[in-house]
Model the fold of this input.
Amino acid sequence: QVQLVESGGGLVQAGGSLTLSCAVSGSIFSANPMGWYRQAPGKQRELVATITRSGSTNYLDSVKGRFTISRDDAKNTVDLRMNNLKSEDTAVYYCKVFGIVRGTVTAFWGQGTQVTVSS
Done:
């Protein structure tokens, strides 16, 4: 069915940039937003950014102006461009999309990709 493969994580210095990519195979339920989440050690998983079918976006306040989420429906990808990275951005980042399994709208998560920002 739906499979997500994330890439682009790594180690970067504060102030640097990374682009995370999420390649989706299978048919997504495009009526629901796609998004990126992150989870830092000892913290709850939090929503970083979402993007709707029409291109409307929402961002976590702390990343607004620094991160940009985008989607390319022709390539079935959703990317997260991260600029001016801070140590507080260190986390495992997860891509999330929705598909339909046996008639039920179902969330699918990527395996996670580590982003580490050094001071």
The chain has a mean pLDDT of 95. Residues 71 and 78 are 4 Å apart (CA to CA).
